[in-house]
Amino acid sequence: MKYPRTVQRYCKSCRQHTKHNVSTYKKGKERMLNQGRRRLERKKKGYGSFPKEIFHKNAKINKKTTPLLECSECGKKHYAKSYRVKRLELQEV
Ligand SMILES: [Zn+2]
Question: How remote is the CA of residue 69 from the centroid of ligand 1, in Å?
Answer without folding.
Answer: 10
